[in-house]
Amino acid sequence: MNIIKGGVCAAKGFMANGIHCGIRKNQSKKDLALIVSDTPATAAAVYTTNLVKGAPLLVTKKHIENGIARAVICNSGNANTCNANGCEIAEEMSRLVEKAVGVKADDVVVASTGVIGQPLDLEPIKNGMPELVKGLSCDNGLSAAQAIMTTDTVHKEIAVEFKIGDKTCRLGGIAKGSGMIHPNMATMLVFLTSDVKISKAMLQKALSGDIADTFNMISIDGDTSTNDMVVILANGKAENEEITAEGEDFDIFMKALNTVTVHLCRMIAGDGEGATKLLECKVSGAADKETAKTVAKSVICSSLLKAAMFGADANWGRVLCAIGYSGAAVDINKIDVSFKSAKGEIAVCKMGSGIEFSEEKAKEILLESEIEILVNLNMGDFCSTAWGCDLTYDYVKINGDYRT
Question: Would the N or C end of the chain have less CB density within 10 A of its end CB?
Answer without folding.
Answer: C
